[in-house]
Amino acid sequence: MSGVATTTPAARLGALARAELSLLGRNKSVITTAVLVPSALPLATRPAVEQMARKAGGLTPGTMMITAAIGFSLLFAVYAALVSTYVARREELVLKRLRTGELTDREILVGSALPAVSIGVVQCVLLTIGCMAFLDAGAPRAPHLALLGLLSGLMLCAALAALTATFSRSVESAQVTALPLLCVSMLGSGIAIPPDLLPHRVASLCELLPLSPAMRLIRGGWTGGLPAHEALSAGAMAVAWTVLAVFAVRRWFRWEPRH
Q: Most exposed residue of 76, 85, 155, 203, measured as fewest CB within 10 angstroms of its CB?
């Protein structure tokens, strides 16, 4: 009796990630959005950042630039790129075909996200090194908080991308459905505007936004000025948002084209 060859979850994820990376490399618009936009936006906003740093106590231009660079990478290299990826694979019936094989639903979503997440990680590292070297940002005073913020941001952006794809009818409309979270996060989660510059009531409301806990941990990792109870609160809120997003994806994610 001949045995049936089986594969491990790691092997299946690796194969799917390699295939997705190959497809991602052919999409020039997604590559441009994922790679160039997060790199260019912090540089383009540098004069405004330096002006805001003078008004925000305890923050240097370098620290603000690092926070902005990482935030833009999370939003564009991971979130926006993945929304388009999930919608495109769904409309091309790729997701439907993958479900007929050995891959589980979780493996399909994770494997499809790995290339974009990897690009986001590499970009965050390179931009951070650049800010430390050329903008006098300095090393993080609490690197464990910065790492926790980055990891939570990556997971949440991937989950939110899958959720956003659920409400996108086409690849073209995916660019529109992703805009609300992009704009709200840039303005309210401390990416483009430090929370210290917002009115107190507005800042308190913005702390409840999905990406605010991750950005708060990243900023606190560099400044070292985030008390333990606030770090725990931000970590708990980041976990809560991620769990909620994952639950919503499992409940409502669409595997076939919308009609």
A: 203
Q: Of 139, 115, 116, which Cα lies nearest the Cα of 128? A: 139
The tokens of 170 are what? 């086409």
Rounded to whole angstroms, how far apart are CA atoms 253 and 41? 31
Of 77, 92, 226, residue with least CA distance to 148:
226
Asked whether 171 and 88 are in contact (CB, 8 A), the reply is: yes
Helix 143-166 with 81-91: angle, nearest 10 deg: 30
d(CA 91, CA 41) in angstroms, rounded, equals: 31
DSSP state of 207: T
CA atoms within 13 Å, Cβ hemisphere of 227: 3
Task: Determine the pLDDT at residue 2.
Answer: 44
pTM attached to this predicted model: 0.89
Q: Minimal CA–CA distance to 45: which of 186, 201, 162? A: 186
Spell out the residues 6+ positions from residue 141 whose beta carbon is closer than 8 angstroms to its own.
221, 222, 223, 224
Q: For the segment 35-84, what is each residue's pLDDT rounded down to a tens digit?
A: 666 666 666 666 666 666 666 656 677 778 888 889 989 998 899 989 99
- Distance (Å) of CA 113 to CA 28, 63, 247, 252: 18, 28, 17, 18
Q: Are 150 and 52 contacting, i.e. CB atoms less than 8 angstroms apart?
A: no
